[in-house]
Amino acid sequence: MTRLIIFGAPGAGKGTQAARIAESLGIPAISTGDIFRYNIKNETALGLQVKAILASGAYVPDDVTNAIVRDRLDQPDAVVGFLLDGYPRTAAQVTELDDMLSGQGVSLDAVLELTVDTEEVVQRLLKRAEIDGRADDTEDVIRHRLKVYDEETAPLAAFYRERGLLHQVDGMGEMDAVAERLQAVLATLQG
User: Could you report the average pLDDT of every consecutive run of 10 residues in the chain (191 residues)?
Assistant: First the structure.
């Protein structure tokens, strides 16, 4: 069983790498961002609420995100393992995830942190906005999201390091090179 988290700044390549890792391990990649974007696209009540929050550059409130993750982890395909992308983002979400997993009698196996250069991330996100037409990816909003990440999410690295779960991986360079570095870390975990 493999229970993983991948995290890093917005634009670090988490979604791309999460899909690759999940496929190689045969586990679902669970992206809160993808769940939110699906709801926005389909104009659900959740989607309309989340759209307004994201447009301001803020993160979705913990209670909303926690409920979505709890529901997703209860799905049959997540019983054998999962890779969380975009969750947890706050200390309160870490506590909530611990409660969810202990309720299932399991725990995390590893936390993968993609480390990237801030200016590289800004350029990646601006390029993605141009290609995908993501209205939430203006330069001001991107820089605000990075500031929020540095304040709220980056400190979680120390928490997971203390637990012996954190593995930092250089997220710079070509996607395949980053994937190779991640696979090398995963190989040491599966030992």
Answer: 90 92 95 87 88 83 90 91 93 95 94 93 88 78 89 90 96 94 92 64
163 catalytic residue (yes or no): no
143 is catalytic: no
Catalytic residue among 3, 72, 89, 124: 89
Domain with 139 in it: what CATH number?
Answer: 3.40.50.300
**Is residue 74 domain-resident?**
yes
> 116 by DSSP, 3-state: which?
coil
The total number of structural domains that make up the chain: 1
Give the active site residue among 3, 14, 72, 181.
14
pLDDT of residue 38: 85
Structure tokens at 71: 């529901």
- Does 188 map to a domain? no
- Can 134 be counted among the known catalytic residues? yes
In a domain, 169, yes or no: yes
Domain range for 96: 2-179
Catalytic (active site) residue 127:
no
* Reported pTM: 0.85
63-83 CB burial, b ≥16 within 10 A, e <16? ebbbebbeebbeeeebeebbb
For this structure, is 51 an active site residue? no
